Amino acid sequence: MKQRGKRNNGGVTSCSSSSDSSSAPCTPSETVVDHELKKKEHRENMVQFRKRKKASITGARELHARLEKRLAYLLATRHDLRHQLHDSLTFHRLRYAELVAPTETIRRENEALREHFMLHAKYTQVLHEELMAIYDSDKENVFVCDDQDLVSLEAAHGRKELRGQWIHFTHNEPPFFYLPFPEEACAVMVRQAYEEVRKMQMGFQRKEFRMWETKLFGWTAQRSLVRNERNNVVSRVLFRKRYDCGAVNVNEKLDEVRTMSWRLHIVPDMYQRCHRTPIISKVLQSFGDHTFIIVRNTPDPCTINIRYLNLVSSIETTTALGQRRSMLTMSVAEDDEHRRIREADGRTDVIWLTEGYAFVEYTAIDDHTLEVSYGNQVECVSEEQAQYFMLELPPRFIEG
């Protein structure tokens, strides 16, 4: 006997058949009705599920609000409750409140810090986008500090514009936006630094500065300390000494000490070992094998970071007498573009040094005599900093 359909326990009509293999299948109209009934049942189930979920969330929120009020009440009246410890229940409630209070305080502080960090991240992103818009150029000119901290300008030689990047440090020191210097501009700065070194050497030789001089352990030390029109301290120092190379040829000795001194200035870890205070160095650009731009940062988490862009270059010349001379110049790289970038950044926790230079010079006096000279001129924020440049750096660099 054929059955076209029957009502099941759920009240839904569906097609079925008996064990007779010759039963006729459901008609298309019956299939559509069956599908619609299933969809209706599913919608009703979902409505009931959402109602239960909403009621559960509402109940949890109400319970949370009641518990917060209860906790606030216990914390506000805990001093009074100490005098009413008539039973263990009151005692345990008070102890619970005292344990939960620090946790709740820390949680709220963490939420406030997260909001602060999000705002700071948004501000940094906006500032970065604005600076990138100012210095917009070809995407092929992007420079990124890689793992070796070396950025070459060879691919960008001859281009008028170079695109900058944010430079980050490893210990949360303030980042800064760096615009690579064109090679021609760096060549000009190196030449100016060399001329300033020669000018300072002649000034000490001719006693043009207000200075004092002393001799100790074979060294001749000269120093000048004056204030400029901005009332900042301008420190000039010069150390000279001659060494007898003995049986070693002076040119071999000169090459040895020059290579060691060069590595001391361009390898960040070696440069750090020359200082008692922490100094972070990061190589930003290189021009061949003899000129580098390195950022030097002296971090201080309690106050400010003292920072400058150090242009380090190696120069080979001869004296008027034909003596071989090798000089390492270390000057502050600065231009109008970087001044505008710092003004736009507006940080108050970083002081940028914008003037100053230093040098180490090795001169082959004769076949077995090598003269070593070290000097620097820098505008300092205080006499204490000038004393640091006078007493700590020269012997460490010369020893290296």
Task: Please describe what this structure looks like.
Residues 13-29 have a biased composition (Low complexity). With 400 residues, this protein is of the alpha+beta class. The protein has helices at residues 28-76, 78-81, 88-134, 183-205, 250-266, 268-272, 336-345, 383-391, 393-399; strands at residues 6-7, 13-14, 165-167, 176-178, 211-216, 219-227, 233-244, 280-287, 291-298, 305-318, 324-332, 350-352, 356-366, 369-380. The chain has 2 domains: 78-131; 142-399, START domain (Alpha-D-Glucose-1,6-Bisphosphate, Chain A, domain 4, 2-Layer Sandwich), CATH 3.30.530.20. Strands 5, 6, 7, 8, 9, 10, 11, 12, 13 and 14 form a 10-stranded mixed beta sheet that branches. The chain starts with 5 loop residues before the first strand and ends with a helix.
Keywords:
alpha+beta; Alpha-D-Glucose-1,6-Bisphosphate, Chain A, domain 4; 43% helix; 400 residues
Sum this structure up briefly.
The chain is 43% helix and 26% strand.
Shape: elongated
CATH topology of the largest domain: Alpha-D-Glucose-1,6-Bisphosphate, Chain A, domain 4
| Alpha-carbon distance between the two ends | 108 Å
Rounded to an integer in angstroms, the radius of gyration calculated over CA atoms is: 38 Å
Order of helices and strands: EEHHHEEHEEEHHEEEEHEEEHH
Helical proportion, percent range: 40-55%
The overall pLDDT, averaged over residues, is: 76
- CATH homology superfamily of the largest domain: START domain
Uncertain stretches of 5 or more adjacent residues:
1-14, 16-22, 135-161, 394-400
The number of strands is: 14
CATH architecture of the largest domain: 2-Layer Sandwich
Structural class: alpha+beta
Main sheet properties = 10 strands, mixed
The figure for the number of domains is 2
CATH class of the largest domain: Alpha Beta
